[in-house]
């Protein structure tokens, strides 16, 4: 793991009016030195972290030397959502996780960028929760973001998302084994019946009476319990339902029609969590008022998690965005 760096944020006012005297913001930097190259901000998903490339990097297929997001050309910044536990210190939000919103986290990320003397970015990109955070970051400072790339995500929490957040919250607060049990439910949201059925085909583990699907789910729950804090899970899950770029603002089109940022909406055709119909509607609405809005769709049997599985398709979608920037710079140089 690349060394974590820390930014100290003091007297931060939350959206609900409360103030946090101190918030440590941990991050990792990859690629070129700050100030020497275009900046790409990568936002992690619910159980993710800032370790996006290198040893155990969760997006190694897309980020690194001579890859789609090329660290020989770009400066890549990945923040940890405060409270996600990756910093491995005592700071957590277990007692007041419901005080925080995605908008708070987006403002915290911008505080971090400004403290690093980064005033504008080539792209903000993220999957799932990270994509929702990318939407909010862009709306906060649209003049500072050249490309918004939300993947398997949405600009608002639908009733379906809110309902599942409630179920997860109930499990996390009432189960005797909260992280593992919540993960069992979540995994079935992240995949599809077709994906599960095709993979396991009602097979059993050896001569035991345990089905392979049961073993697979149990192992996912155990793995997450061994690396993730309960306070982090509660917070990240809660943030999902606070996602709404129109809250306290104008309507969706009024907010975005004046934004010059290029918007690349990436959906998964079988996503049962952030369903593609919502993303298509977003594109159709924006397309009526903006020229630089694009819709891309990953075709996969695997559902929501396809953004962590179908790397070849995702690379093909992202390549024109990042390669164009590199080519333009080479020409101007």
From TrEMBL:
Alphabetical keyword list: Hydrolase, Transferase
A Pfam family hit: Abhydrolase_1
Taxonomic source organism: Flavobacterium paronense
Gene3D superfamilies for the chain: alpha/beta hydrolase
Name the UniProt record assigns to this protein: Alpha/beta fold hydrolase
Domain AB hydrolase-1: 38-159
GO MF term set: hydrolase activity
